[in-house]
Amino acid sequence: MSEAVQILRYIGTTGGCLLSDIAIHLGIPVRSVNGWVVLLCSTGYLHRSGQYPCASPCGGSGPVCSGCCSACHAVPAGLPVRIAVTERGWDLIRRNNHENRTEEPLNGD
């Protein structure tokens, strides 16, 4: 879970970033960062920006349709999707800081 919190903190301090930025800064393979980001997005700790209306029958939206979990064809190829920390993510960072007695200033405070 420490990688997940590191990723949340980094995204929080940058105000949103690309997967490659996270991987380079934290020294974590892009594949691992992607796995954490998918998990953190699905649990509401992160939000992917650049959501586009989906043309699929489910009417979902975004890089992957939330309703059918299929790849969304409405996202233009090569468009970078930015990632930002949600309020739930900030709560987790604050809890982690409190438990570890970390006194780092956070953008979400």
Describe this structure in words.
The protein has a domain at 2-49 and 80-99: Arc Repressor Mutant, subunit A (Orthogonal Bundle), CATH 1.10.10.10. The chain has four helices and two strands, in the order αααββα. It has helices at residues 2-14, 19-26, 30-42, 87-99; strands at residues 46-48, 83-85. Strands 1-2 form a two-stranded antiparallel ribbon. Helix 1 crosses helix 4 (87-99). The longest helix is centred in the first third of the chain and has 13 residues, at 2-14.
| Helical content class | 40-55%
**Shape, principal axes of CA atoms:** globular
Name the helix and strand elements from N-terminus to C-terminus, one letter apiece.
HHHEEH
Q: Are there runs of 5+ residues with pLDDT below 50, and where?
A: 51-76
CATH homolog superfamily of the domain at 2-49 and 80-99: Winged helix-like DNA-binding domain superfamily/Winged helix DNA-binding domain
CATH level 1 class label of the domain at 2-49 and 80-99: Mainly Alpha
What distance lies between the first and last C-alpha atoms, to the nearest angstrom? 22 Å
Topology, number of strands? 2
What average pLDDT do the residues reach? 73
The assigned structural class equals mainly alpha
Spatial order of strands in the largest sheet: 1-2
* CATH architecture descriptor of the domain at 2-49 and 80-99: Orthogonal Bundle
CATH fold assignment of the domain at 2-49 and 80-99: Arc Repressor Mutant, subunit A
